[in-house]
Specification:
- With about 400 residues, the chain is mainly alpha-helical.
- α3 packs across α12.
- It starts with about 25 loop residues before the first helix and ends in a 29-residue tail after the last strand.
Length: about 400
């Protein structure tokens, strides 16, 4: 297993990576390129762009928000720095943390904005949790779909031609694009990357039959999933809606965003530490993102949210690689008990079925079986000590140390 020599990402990552001849990943190279950009000039480009869309009869812009630190920062830039009148749009997946719910419902007050919150039926969401997990190893698939669908549905309905997202996740984490590409939101990205090739119709009974997975039918129909249905090309063309990423125009760094929104808007981080990562400021809109959803990433790829967060902090210069490795070794293999118990009750599933299904999604480039147990190579801390990584299932996860 190869790991980046600057951050702690493995070569087989959920976010596509490439490694150069120095063993540095494309995400680190993209992050380093931020230092070469004239961000003052980028802010001027942003202002010139949004000025073309100011409206006297409708909203100036649609901003997809979860109520998180980044959402607050997006709306702060739009209202305080650009003087726009935005319409906020939220997909609510029914699993918010209390602090996340608090932050979300304060947004229309602190920013004086109209705010549309789309909340699918609880029954449909429970079924989508089960289906996402069983079909492709992601109980939060519905969230990825909803987040990338409901904002453009609303923009088309209200004839707002501009949307503004935060950072492009695949660019920010993995360097999929250059910041000089000024990449924008597309239906292709939504389907092929955010939703990993699946769409809403795959989760209906008819769609599952076509996939050869009639055994997973939950009775969902097109009417149950209206929130997940992307507008047609003609509808988008009639409105001219496009989606830009704020991360192309400002020096995107989550720690500084958090400090700003906590001081200015009294935004709240999680009050209880997460079991699988050291950060308390991320993913408050779905308690399972930092929990069993992330545990599934560890099962699939051999790393988790602590790796993601450590890589961001290493690139931002607030954590050393050695400190990042310690975070990885401390958190990545943890099976989150309180989170798992909540979700199993939510979807009426046993832990045995959960573990059995998890194992079917392991990447065999990462995992192998030795003496009846799943094992993987673990990142080395550079000091010659590499004790076993334990997991609370029947599997254990350790092989030889990684020397880079």
């Amino acid at each position: 297993m190869q790991y980046c020599t600057k951050c702690v990402y493995p070569v087989f990552a959920a976010t596509p990576l490439s490694f150069d001849e120095q063993g540095v990943c494309s995400g680190c190279r993209s992050a380093a390129a931020k230092q070469t950009i004239d961000w003052d000039k980028r802010k001027i480009l942003l202002r010139e762009l949004v000025n073309e869309y100011r409206s006297s009869s409708s909203y100036d812009i649609v901003i997809p928000v979860s109520g998180g630190k980044d959402s607050y920062y997006q709306v702060h830039v739009a209202t305080e720095e650009l003087g726009l009148k935005p319409l906020l749009v939220t997909y609510h997946g029914n699993n918010y943390l209390p602090e996340g719910e608090y932050n979300l419902y304060r947004m229309r007050e602190v920013f004086n904005c109209d705010h549309i919150i789309v909340r699918p039926s609880v029954d449909a969401l429970i079924k989508m949790n089960r289906l996402g997990f069983r079909l492709q190893g992601d109980m939060n698939w519905h969230g990825h779909c909803g987040i990338h669908t409901t904002p453009i549905q609303v923009a088309v309905r209200y004839k707002v031609p501009l949307m503004m997202w935060g950072e492009h996740g695949f660019l920010d984490l993995g360097g999929m694009y250059s910041l000089n590409d000024f990449v924008e939101f597309t239906a292709k990205f939504r389907l092929e990357h955010a939703q990993r090739g699946y769409d809403w119709y795959d989760f209906t009974d008819e769609g599952l039959e076509k996939l050869g997975r009639s055994d997973l039918k939950e009775g969902l129909t097109a009417k149950d999933l209206l929130w997940a249905q992307y507008p047609t090309d003609d509808e988008i063309a009639d409105t001219g809606t496009r989606g830009i990423y704020l991360g192309n125009y400002v020096n995107w760094e989550a720690n500084s965003h958090s400090k700003l929104v906590m001081e200015k808007y009294k935004w709240k981080p999680a009050q209880q530490p997460f079991e699988r990562t050291y950060r308390t400021m991320s993913n408050l809109d779905d308690m399972h993102e930092n929990g069993i959803h992330d545990y599934l990433k560890f099962i699939k790829f051999g790393y988790g949210r602590a790796t993601d967060h450590a890589c961001k902090d290493i690139r931002a210069g607030i954590m050393t690689r050695a400190q990042g490795i310690e975070m990885v070794r401390k958190y990545d293999s943890i099976k989150p008990r309180r989170d798992l118990e909540r979700w199993l009750k939510y979807v009426d599933m046993t832990e045995e079925e959960f573990d059995r299904t998890c194992d079917t999604f392991r990447d065999r480039r990462v995992w192998s079986i030795e003496n009846g147990q799943w094992v993987k190579e673990n990142i080395w801390n550079g000091h010659g000590t590499y004790g076993p990584v334990h997991c609370d299932t029947q599997s254990t996860f350790q092989r030889k140390p990684q020397t880079r």
